[in-house]
Write the structure tokens for this entry.
Amino acid sequence: MQTSLFLKSDTLKAHQATEKLVIKHIKEIDTDKKYGEFLKKFYVFHTTVEEATAEYLNAFKPHYQFEESSIDIKADLDFLGFPTPRQMEFNFPSIDNYADALIAQYVLMGSSLGRPYIAKMLQDRGIEGPFNFLKSNTEESSDRWTKFKELLDEELGEKDKEHLKNKANEVFNAMANLFA
């Protein structure tokens, strides 16, 4: 079974639990201040993944664009007048090798596919934005996701699937802890 399909099925519970917490958080947003607090959590998660995976994935940068949404999140926070958070308390798993880095990007990129839906939910709640992060690259996201899954399957095809699944679940759980 392809790694991407294996991860999708074997991390479904952690993915759904994380999604449920994010949606619960969205339903509580009714002011720019609450929206800013929401964005700060995404900023911390995205910068953590981006920084933790950079050294292992730099070789791909000329050929493949990994998720770097922290720039868009920072622009939204700046517009709202929020300082850029440096840290938040949460347990992020160690990223110790190339496979772990790809798995962390799998969680980050996969969860980013829901951004347009989050923007719509927030707009329905009367939040006017800014939505640089939530609406950025939405046209390209599906294509990038397909290419990323191909890369994942090619690069991690015969790796220890149990380890990959556990690492993905750890990353999902780390994200969930930010929104708990």
